[in-house]
Design a protein that fits this description.
Blueprint: H1 3-7, E1 10-14, H2 18-29, E2 33-38, H3 44-52, E3 56-59, H4 64-67, E4 72-75, H5 84-91, E5 96-97, H6 99-105, E6 111-116, H7 121-134, E7 139-143, H8 149-155, E8 160-164, H9 167-171, E9 180-183, H10 198-206, E10 217-221, H11 225-231, E11 239-244, E12 252-256, E13 259-264, E14 267-272, H12 281-296, H13 301-310, E15 319-324, E16 327-331, H14 338-346, E17 352-356, H15 369-375, E18 376-382, H16 387-393, E19 399-403, H17 406-416, E20 422-425, H18 438-450
Parallel strand pairs: 1-2, 1-4, 2-3, 4-5, 6-8, 6-9, 7-8, 9-10, 10-11, 11-12, 16-20, 17-18, 17-20, 18-19
Antiparallel strand pairs: 12-13, 13-14, 15-16
Helix pairs in contact: 2-8, 6-8, 7-12, 7-13, 17-18
Length: 452
């Protein structure tokens, strides 16, 4: 056994969610001594997996002596740096890595397509995966989108991993290097985790390319000012493939009129945007990014066209729920920041009753002020503390009501709405004040709509 192996033998995992348990299984499989510690209660299915695999764990506490004896700590992306246990680990100089870093270590010769951005990453990740599947490639959908990357590597390795990556996961990488990285956009989000400094968050997103080489590709939006400004400060060691709706690019992708053009190596793909399954300007960007990634993987243009035409959008992301007495209900619970809500409102063509609110992450509501003025007839605030939203919109929206459950919010919105209106759940906030997560919020919203 070489010294590197010895160095990395005692793995402590902080956080027993999807990524934590996945890393525990991968660690156990590769001969690590694994201890998992969660400050809260574990979900029954995760607890059972740890027991079934003989993995040592604790819940409801963090035992300092056990944790600080680690040679390496894998920290769940949800745990902030200001957590007391994390501070102690840092003080002791114990290396801290993220789950994607750990999974990367054991991926073998597999390729990674990694997607990040403030908005649209789940949709783009799912679309790239759908194109790969349509082309018959041996691939898996992993990362932030719901299935642990580490667990996939441990239990069912694939030739290609299509991974949605958050800034939190990128914060703790060392060697993680995607073959193809995609950066969709950067807008203010999660500033509470970055000392309220936007530039810290921007730097974090750009870590997706820090280990890339000239054998790799970097797909990015040339129309995003924040990306272009930061890119101008960097020397990059990867192959740039920009995409744009404002100008033609030599390599990458662009939309001119109603035609999407992709130019990658010898492959040329053209397609009418009216054939895209995903509608709206923001989804044109997502579709271009996915198309470039697919072409870079060598997928034939017929397969790209076919997949882009028949893709179904994700649950909780601009999801049509029902039409009740002429009122359309849309579940966009995954909109956990103001920019996501901006995109949702931008695609609305009917008078809208907007359900907003939850745990505020340092939101600047002035970003959606113009769209709210133009499209929103009423706001239903669904949160514990709605003062900031009420203050932001009380002078421009005639009707603002408050609700503390999804059912009350849906009933209030339905009372206000008339035939040919839309009730849009697009909260612009995290969900943790009233719900377990954004999925729980979206599901409760859908259940309440079905009861109308």
């Amino acid at each position: 056994m070489n010294t590197k192996d010895e160095m990395y033998k005692k793995l402590v995992i902080l956080g027993g969610g999807e990524s934590g348990v996945g890393a525990a299984l991968l660690g156990k499989k590769n001969g690590y001594e694994v201890f998992l510690s969660d400050g809260g209660a574990l979900k029954p299915k995760y607890r059972q997996e740890l027991i079934d695999n003989g993995i040592d764990f604790e819940e409801g506490q963090h035992t300092a002596e056990k944790i600080l004896s680690a040679t390496e700590v894998m920290k769940s992306p949800g745990i902030p740096e200001k957590n007391e246990m994390v501070k102690q680990i840092r003080k002791q100089g114990i290396p801290v890595i993220s789950e994607i870093e750990f999974a990367y270590r054991f991926k073998g010769n597999s390729k990674i397509v990694a997607i990040t951005g403030s908005n649209g990453k789940s949709t783009t990740t799912a679309l790239i995966y759908h194109i790969c599947e349509t082309a018959g490639l041996d691939c898996a959908l992993v990362g932030n989108i719901g299935y642990s990357f580490a667990k996939q590597v441990a239990e069912d390795p694939k030739a290609i991993y299509v991974a949605e990556i958050s800034s939190f996961q990128l914060d703790d990488i060392k060697e993680f290097r995607p073959d193809i990285s995609v950066l969709l956009n950067i807008t203010e989000d999660h500033l509470d985790r970055y000392d309220y400094k936007f530039e810290n968050y921007v730097r974090s997103k750009f870590r997706i390319i820090e280990n890339q080489t000239m054998n790799d590709y970097f797909i990015y939006c040339q129309d995003d000012e924040v990306i272009m400004k930061h890119l101008a400060l960097l020397t990059i060691h990867t192959n740039p493939l920009p995409f744009s709706m404002k100008q033609e690019v030599k390599k990458g992708g662009y939309i001119k009129g109603d035609q999407m053009m992709l130019r990658i190596q010898e492959e040329r793909v053209s397609m009418s945007i009216y054939d895209f399954a995903l509608k709206g300007k923001h989804n044109n960007y997502n579709t271009m990014a996915a198309g470039i990634a697919a072409a870079t993987l060598g997928i034939r243009k017929e397969k790209i066209r076919e997949a882009v035409k028949n893709f179904h959008s994700l649950e909780h992301r601009m999801e049509f729920v029902a039409m009740v007495r002429g009122v359309e209900f849309i579940n966009d619970s995954k909109a956990t920041n103001v920019n996501s809500t901006w995109y949702a409102l931008e695609s609305m063509s009917k008078p809208t009753v907007l359900i907003l609110g939850g745990t505020d992450k340092g939101n600047d509501y002035s970003l959606i002020e113009d769209l709210v003025k133009e499209k929103v007839k009423a706001i239903v605030c669904m949160g514990v503390d709605n003062k900031k939203i009420i203050d932001a919109f009380k002078d421009i929206v005639p009707v603002i009501v408050e609700a503390d459950t999804a059912k009350k919010a849906v009933n209030a919105a339905f009372k206000i709405a008339v035939k040919d209106d839309v009730v849009l759940l697009s909260p612009a906030c995290a969900s943790f004040d009233l719900f377990k997560n954004y999925e729980d919020r979206g599901t409760q919203f859908k259940d309440a709509v079905k009861e109308l």
